[in-house]
Amino acid sequence: MYDNWLELDECVKNCKKCDLCKERKNVVLGDGNINAKVMFIGEGPGADEDEQGLPFVGKAGQLMNDAFKAIGIDRKEVYIANIVKCRPPKNRNPYEKEIKECLDYLRNQVILVKPEIIVLLGSVALTSILGKEYTITSARGKWIEKKGIKYIPTFHPAALLRDDSKKISFYKDLKMVKKEMDKEN
Ligand code: URA
Predict the structure, then answer these.
(1) How do residues 1-37 score in pLDDT, each as one tens digit?
(2) Which of 122, 145, 153, 155 could form a disulfide with 159 if both were Cys (CB 3.0 to 4.6 A apart)?
(3) Residue 32 Ramachandran class (φ > 0 left, ψ -120 to 50 alpha, else beta)
(4) What does DSSP say about strands 117-121 and 30-32: parallel, antiparallel, or unpaired?
(5) DSSP per residue over 35-103, as a string?
């Protein structure tokens, strides 16, 4: 574990723990406020993210930005990361082995950011963080408190691109996040 971002960043940039390093253009560690109250966790970089080295800058990111804007969440106020830091080829789901190798980096990010709330975007984020017993259909939109952190699973924004009807639930879940964000401590 690193106690500063510079060292973590340097380590992740040079990571060769799994084969995803072979085809990546850029490692995508995270983006946003490193002292955020809320952290969003996605699955892994897509082509645009791999190109730019930043999370959620492609189509799914645009959808997330639109939802943030509509609900009044400032993207600069939150921290955004992914389960795996390098793009899986052809946007396939990351393999178990790749997730396992990469999770320590995310744990390190959580320790440094110290978020009160973590939004889990989609099934890979949900099951990698909270366990395989959870499914997105039954867990979404519900608070799950563990070790002092409030988790809320919701649909991955890319799922909204495929199925427009999921938008209502996604917006509803983000409204719950916004309400919790605005609570005084
Ligand atoms: N999908 C993800 O899960 N993460 C990104 O950064 C972009 C798309």
Answers:
(1) 999 999 999 999 999 999 999 999 999 999 999 999 9
(2) 155
(3) left
(4) unpaired
(5) T-SEEEEES---HHHHHHT-SS-SHHHHHHHHHHHHHT--GGGSEEEESSSSPPGGGPPPPHHHHHHHH
Ramachandran quadrant class, 24 (left: phi over 0; alpha: psi -120 to 50; beta: rest) = beta
179 CA distance to ligand 1 middle (Å): 24
Q: State whether the beta carbon of 42 lies less than 6 angstroms from ligand 1.
A: yes
Q: Separation of 183 CA from ligand 1 center, angstroms?
A: 28
Pairing of strands 79-82, 117-121: unpaired
Within its chain, how far is the Cα of 76 from the centroid? 15
Cα of 108 vs centre of ligand 1, distance in Å, is 19
Q: What is the pLDDT of residues 136-152, one digit of tens each?
A: 999 999 999 999 999 99
DSSP state, 148?
A: T
